[in-house]
Each structure stands twice: as C-alpha cells, then as structure tokens.
Amino acid sequence: MILIDGKKAAAELREELKHEVSSLKKKFNKVPGLTVILIGDLTPSQIYVRNKEKSANEVGLKSEVIRYPDTIEQKVVLEKIKELNKDDSVSGILVQLPLPKHIDKQKVIQTIDPSKDVDGFHPMNVGNLSSGYDSSIPCTPLGCYLLIKKTEPNLNGKKAVVVGRSNLNGKPMTQLLLKENCTVTITHSKTKDLKSECLKADIIVAAVGIPELVKGDWVKKETIVIDVGINKTEKGIVGDVDFDEVSKVAKALTPVPGGVGPMTIACLLKNTIDCFKRSQK
Ligand code: NAD
Q1: Do 154 and 249 fall within a single domain?
Q2: Which of 113, 128, 154 is at the close of a domain?
Q3: Do residue 204 and residue 165 come from a single domain?
Q4: What mean pLDDT do residues 246-256 have?
Q5: Best of 52, 55, 189 to mutate for ligand 1, by most ligand atoms within 8 A of CB?
Q6: 96, 227, 240, 270: the active-site residue
C-alpha cells in the first residue's frame, strides 16, 4: 500500500511556491499579498489563521491578519472587504469561517472581489470551475486533487466516488475529477447502499465528518482513497476512513493527520500566488 504523504507533498509545494514568489518579486518588484479577516476568538480558527500566516511568511508572501471581536457589525466587515478589494497590495482575501450568527456568510463571500477570492467560494468562481474555466479552487479539494494526480497522473476514464456533497469539499472535488475525465458519482447522507457505490470506485474521496465511515470491505484492491475527514474521538483525531482496515486493502491511502490537512494551507498559498499572476496579466 502506498501511504500518500501529505506533509511531504505540502513541503515540496511550498518550496516550489517560494521559488515562484522570488521570481515574481524580481519580475514585478512586489510580492503577492494575503489578507485574512478573523472574527471572534474560536480556538480552532485562531490556530488555522496562525498556521496560514506562518506558512505565508515562509514562502515570502506579504501577509496580514485583521482581527475583529465577535460583536463586530456586519457593515464594518463588508466595508473593510470593499477597501481590500481596491488595495493593489492585496492579492487574496480570506474571511475565516465559521462566522458569528449575526453575520451573513453568503453576503461576506459575495462581497469579496472574485479575482481575490482565494477560498474559491464566490459564486463566480464556483461557476467558472463547473464550466471548466480558470478560477480559484477551494483549497482542500485542490489539495486532494494534487495528491491524487501525484499518485496516478492519468485519471482518464477512472471511476471516482465522492462521499459528501458540501460546497467546501464534495462538490468542487467532483468538478476537478470530471475535468480529469473521471466518471464521477457524488454520494451523500441520502445515498442508498454507499458500500456498493464505493466498491465500484477506482478513487474514493471521503469528506463526510463521520469517524471511520469507510470500511475495509467497501474498497477494491486497486483503489486510491483520499480521507478529508478530521474527527475528534476518544482515541484522538481520526478521518472518515477506517485507516487500519482500508490500509490493508487499498492501493493508496492518505493518513489522518498528515494527509490532506497539510495540503490545504499550501493550496491557499498557491491560490494567492495564482490570483496575483492573473492580476498582472
Ligand atoms: P459538511 O458537514 O458540510 O458535509 C458533509 C457531507 O457528508 C454532506 O454532504 C452530507 O450529505 C454527507 N454525509 C453525511 N452523512 C453521510 C453518510 N452517512 N453517508 C454519506 N454521506 C454523508 O462537511 P465538510 O465541511 O465537507 O467536512 C467534511 C469533513 O472534512 C469534516 O470531518 C471536516 O472536519 C473535514 N475537513 C477537513 C479539511 C482538511 O483540511 N483536511 C478541510 C475541511 C473539512
């Protein structure tokens, strides 16, 4: 079984991006900039944002975090986003989710200029991705895609099963696999007999949020399995795939932690650089 090492792949991607930033700096005399807006003091969000900032600095991006208390008025946040939209030194804007209840997530996402939407959540980017046009792609599915391509460069005609249909993971993942000429089945909580769907797959991407849902007898010998899940359990953090069982059967599998997770932040940096490059054209 191939253990797909997301930590190593993310480090290699960051190294590539570091070189790219340094050549962009030489060419344009400026570096791409990432601005993160963090509202409130939820611990996981604080940790994510700290890691994002650290990684951005590591590859040489200009990075800034704007912090607001969770009582901040929505209009202040929207005004700040509009200001950042006009700021040439800002290539990418990310508003860390989840947001406090009084702030309308959709409104926030739609206020970000699509050309600076490094999360790829703006409807314009969602539409561009599904039409096969150049766009920002949500970071986690983009990371999954890069890991799959590293393991199996030619995905033509492969049968892929995506478990979970969230806007964040399942739906964009489906679009990326379709673009690679996979035959894709997207499954969800109402899918009947998920096991038999998974048994048809050459590639399984599980993004559900149920600990160890995908079992060893759901997977064929030649299947590549990508585990997006991050679930806190009594035995620690586990994915949506039963690692012990599936690692005995699958061709390749991502561990949790150390699989998809590290790629997510690296892909955020990639998206920031890609937004910068598009803006210079
Ligand atoms: P979500 O709750 O938005 O969506 C879950 C999806 O799973 C839904 O579409 C639902 O229909 C489907 N589902 C629920 N029960 C099911 C079942 N029994 N069978 C089949 N499908 C079922 O979740 P999300 O935001 O996509 O996140 C999924 C998981 O990925 C979570 O564990 C989350 O923590 C993790 N995650 C990881 C990263 C990362 O960087 N590795 C990033 C984001 C999310």
Answers
A1: yes
A2: 113
A3: yes
A4: 98
A5: 189
A6: 96
What span, in angstroms and rounded, lies between the C-alpha atoms of 91 and 114? 11
Based on the domain organization, do 107 and 190 belong to the same domain? no
**Domain-located, residue 61:** yes
Please enumerate in sequence order all residues whose Cβ is within 8 A of that of 207, keeping only pairs 6 or more positions apart, or say none: 140, 162, 163, 164, 166, 168, 169, 170, 173, 228, 229, 240
Q: Which residue's CA is minimally distant from atom 5 of ligand 1?
A: 208
pLDDT in tens, 142-182: 999 999 999 999 999 999 999 999 999 999 999 999 999 99
Phi-psi region of 144 (alpha: psi -120 to 50; beta: other; left: phi over 0): alpha
Q: Are residues 238 and 188 in the same domain?
A: yes
Residues 91 and 186 in one domain: no
Ligand 1 atom 43 nearest Cα: 140
pLDDT tens track for 49-90 = 999 999 999 999 999 999 999 999 999 999 999 999 999 999
Owning domain of residue 251:
139-261
Tokens of 173: 């993942």
